[in-house]
Every structure is written in structure tokens, then in C-alpha cells.
Amino acid sequence: MPATATATAAYWLAEHPAIVSFRWSPTGLWFSTWAFLLGFLASYVALCLALDAILAALLRRRRPLPLGPMPAAHALLMAAVSSVIFAGTLLSALAEIRDTRWSWRGRSRTTPFRWLLCFPPGTRSSGRVFFWSYAYYLSRYLHAARGLFAVLRRRRGAAARVFAHAASVAMAFLWLEFSQSFQVLAILASTLAHAVAFGFRFWVGAGLPAARAARGAPVALACQCALLGCNLLCHVGVVWMHFGGAAGGGCSGIGAWVFNTLLNAALLWVFLHCYGKRGVCDDDGGATAARARHDKDL
Fold this sequence. Notes:
Membrane topology: Multi-pass membrane protein
Low-confidence stretches: 279-297
Transmembrane segments: 34-59, 71-93, 158-176, 182-204, 216-242, 254-272
Distance between the termini: 38 Å
Strand content: under 5%
Protein name: TLC domain-containing protein
Keywords: Fatty acid biosynthesis, Fatty acid metabolism, Lipid biosynthesis, Lipid metabolism, Membrane, Transferase, Transmembrane, Transmembrane helix
Oligomer: single chain
Largest sheet: none
Pfam families: ELO
């Protein structure tokens, strides 16, 4: 029975014809054009900032608007989506390594680990791992709702978090558009962190058993720190392989990688701004209960 369940999961997550034959294209796929991306980013940022200004004018005190069970339900959905994308990306990466191992014989510089960090030049956004990269890109739109929640809850630094979510959408689009290297490891790290953090937020937000005792645990902060550390290591690996000649020809999507690096630096600033100056506080209660009203988002 366990073997059958594993085989079924592997088929639906890595071997289904729609996954194997996936190809990124501006036609035939949702949200796959530059026009849509730029339009969404402009509308999203403008809406959140305008709403923040309106609420600031109408509500002199930082009283949050009641959102009921919506944040907890969103956290549960994000945890489930992140878990599926993590499993699909992991199984798809293993399947791609298995299917292409024959082509690496006699090419000592190419290994599965190096492939994960550095796609060969000319790599196209097609196949299993890019199907899940597309799924991850779509999930960024769902994740962007956290920025709207931050505005409605009247959180401090809401504008910075809105920018962080907008940047996350843009980066996921660039990964697909330019077949950017290291995205497989980045997606695995990000979805694992989100599955843990959002699962914990749902647990606390829904008031499940022992949630009150765990409310002060800095789970989101730990996940964010681990994610930032993983991204830093991946960037160092790409630099070593592309500019150091370890990849023997460079890495795919290096131009997008440079822009991605700048966005990651900006996200690091947002992280330090939200956590460094005001202490550790986020949606799962924060590590400092006295300041739990300043919830933060991943």
C-alpha cells in the first residue's frame, strides 16, 4: 500500500503528461505576459498604498479592521499549496536528474548538484521543474494577499511588506522568462519555509490545542532567516560557477540573476527594517508578546 501511494503521488506530481510536456509561453498560459505582470504590480502597489492612506486619514488610531477567520484560512491555503509545490518540485528534480544522467557521462564538470545551481546556457523553460516553477509563480499572487492584510490590519511598515510581495511576484516571473539558474533550490527552500510558517500561523490563528502556549515562538522569523541564508549560499554558488569558470560555459539566465540579486538585497533591507528596528513580531504571535500587535509577514 505505501509503495502504491508513493507511485501514485510520483505520477501526479512528476510524471503526468501535462507536467512532462510543460512549456513556458506568453500565449496559452495565465499571467504569462510582461503586460499583465507590470499591470498587476502597478495596480497592486497603488491599491495597497491608497488604501493605507485612506485608512490613516479615517482612523487616527492604528485600529485594525476585523478580518475574522480570513487570515487563518489564507494561511491554511498557503501551507497546503506550498507543501504540494515543494513535493512536486522535489520529485520533478529527481526525475530530471534520473532521465538526463546518461547525458552527463564523460562530462566531469556536470553533476546533479551543479545542475541545480547552474542550468547550462540555452536551457529553455520547459519540462517538469519549470511546470512547478510556474505553479510557484502563480502562488505568489495568492501570497500577495498578505500585503493587503497588513494594510487592513494597520500594521507598521505595511508599505515595505507590500513592496516585498510585489518583488516576489516579479522574481518568480523572471525565473521562468529567462530560465534562471538556481531556481529549483530557491523554490524548494521557499516552499518548505512557507509550509512550516503558514501551517504554524493557521494553528495559532485557529486557536487549536496548545496554540496559546506556542504563540510566542518565533517560527516565521526562523523560517525567514533560514530562507535568506539558503538564498545567499545559492547566489555564492552561482557566482562561483558562472564567473569562476566552474560551469564550463556559464549559467543560464545570468542577466535575470543580476536583477534578482538586486531585488533580494532590497528584500533583505525590508527584513532588517521590519525585524531589526522593531523587534521580532509576526502573525504567529511573535517572540515578544508585549509587542505582538506589530505582526509581520514572510
